[in-house]
Design brief:
alpha/beta; 8-stranded parallel beta sheet; 3-stranded antiparallel beta sheet; 23% strand; globular
Length: 321
C-alpha cells in the first residue's frame, strides 16, 4: 500500500471572512492510496481551532503503518482531518476495486441532489446586504456572525434576501446573555437555525434556556462520543467529515444522532469538490445541507461536483467513490 500526501492551495472567488479571521485561499491536503493497481483519493482541511496544521496532519498520515484497512484506521488515528482524508481515500479505493459506487458498498440508497446553503462572508451591513441581494435566488443563506454588531448585519441580509431561509453560525462568539437577548429577534427575522451560539466549553448555559429557534452543535459535536454531552443543550448536530474522521464515522454518527432524537445538518470546511463528495452521501435527507465549499472557490478539481437549482449532486466516479 502506497500513501501519498500532497498539500494543495485553491484560490477563493473572493475574500472569505468569519469572526476568527479572513482568508483568500483554501489550503487542503489530498491523500492518494495506491494498492494492487487501483488508486483512491480523499481530501481534508486541517483546522487551527482543533490544533491542526498542514504539517501536523501530514505527519499523522505519514506515520501510518504500511498496511491497514478502514476497520483498523479508527485505532490508528483519532477523529479529525488526518483520519478523514485517509478514510475517504480507502472508500474510494474499495469502490474502484469492487467496480461499485461507494453508496452501494455502504448499503445506502442511490443518492440524489440535496439543496445546499450558501455562506455569506462576514462584512459591514451594507456589503452583506449587497451579497444577499446577489444571492437572493438561493433557497438557503448562511450568515457568519459572532460579533458585537450582529443585528445590523442580520437585518441587512433579510432586507437583501426577503424570501431565502436564513441560518446563522455564531462560531462560538456569543455569551448566554447575548444569545438570550438576540433569540426573539432571530424569530422575528425568520432565522431557521442557529449554529453553536456559545463556546463549546461553556455551553452548559443552554440547559434549560428557551430555544425558540433550533440550536445546532458544531464545535461541540465531533463524533458519536460527543452525543452524551449534548443532551438538553442542542436540537441538531452538524456532521463534518473533518471532525468525525471520515465517512465511516460520519454515517455512524448520523444513525446514532437520529436515534437519539436529534436532527442532522451536514457541513464542511472550505475545501474542494473532493472534500464534499463523500459528505453528499451523509447529507441525504438532512435537515440542512451546507456543502457549498466549491461554490466559494475560483478554481476546483478537474471533475467537480455539479450544482444547480436542485442542489449539489452526488460525485462522478472520476472524482470519488
Amino acid at each position: 500500500m502506497q500513501i501519498e500526501v500532497t498539500a494543495e492551495t485553491f484560490r477563493l472567488a473572493q475574500v472569505f471572512t468569519i469572526s476568527r479571521g479572513s482568508r483568500t485561499e483554501a489550503q487542503v491536503l489530498r491523500v492518494q492510496i495506491k494498492e494492487g493497481g487501483f488508486s483512491g483519493q480523499g481530501e481534508c482541511v486541517p483546522y487551527a481551532r482543533y490544533g491542526e496544521t498542514l504539517e501536523s496532519v501530514s505527519a499523522e498520515i505519514r506515520g501510518l503503518p504500511d498496511r491497514f484497512d478502514r476497520a483498523a484506521l479508527a485505532d490508528l488515528l483519532p477523529a479529525g482531518a488526518a483520519r478523514n482524508a485517509v478514510d475517504c481515500a480507502l472508500w474510494d479505493l474499495e469502490s474502484k476495486r469492487a467496480g461499485k459506487r461507494a453508496w452501494e458498498l455502504a448499503g445506502l440508497p442511490v443518492p440524489g441532489p440535496e439543496v445546499t446553503a450558501y455562506t455569506l462572508s462576514l462584512a459591514e451591513p451594507d456589503e452583506m446586504q449587497a451579497q444577499a441581494e446577489k444571492n437572493a435566488h438561493r433557497p438557503i443563506l448562511k450568515i457568519k456572525l459572532g460579533t458585537p454588531d450582529d443585528m445590523p448585519r442580520l437585518e441587512a441580509v433579510r432586507r437583501g434576501a426577503p424570501k431565502s431561509v436564513i441560518i446563522v453560525d455564531a462560531n462560538e462568539g456569543w455569551s448566554a446573555a447575548v444569545y438570550a437577548d438576540l433569540a426573539p429577534h432571530l424569530v422575528r427575522l425568520g432565522v431557521a437555525l442557529v449554529e453553536q451560539p456559545l463556546p463549546a466549553g461553556a455551553d452548559e448555559a443552554l440547559i434549560g434556556m428557551a430555544r425558540p429557534v433550533p440550536v445546532c452543535a458544531d464545535e461541540s459535536c465531533h463524533d458519536r462520543a460527543s452525543l452524551a454531552g449534548l443532551a438538553g443543550k442542542y436540537d441538531v448536530v452538524n456532521i463534518k467529515l473533518d471532525k468525525t474522521g471520515g465517512l465511516s464515522e460520519a454515517l455512524r454518527l448520523r444513525t446514532a444522532a437520529l436515534a437519539e432524537g436529534y436532527r442532522v445538518m451536514v457541513g464542511c470546511m472550505v475545501g474542494t469538490s473532493l472534500a464534499m463528495a463523500p459528505a453528499v452521501l451523509v447529507a441525504q435527507g438532512a435537515m440542512v445541507t451546507d456543502l457549498d465549499g466549491p461554490l466559494l472557490l475560483a478554481e476546483d478539481r478537474a471533475t467537480p461536483l455539479f450544482y444547480d437549482e436542485k442542489g449539489v449532486y452526488p460525485p462522478e466516479p472520476a472524482l470519488w467513490g
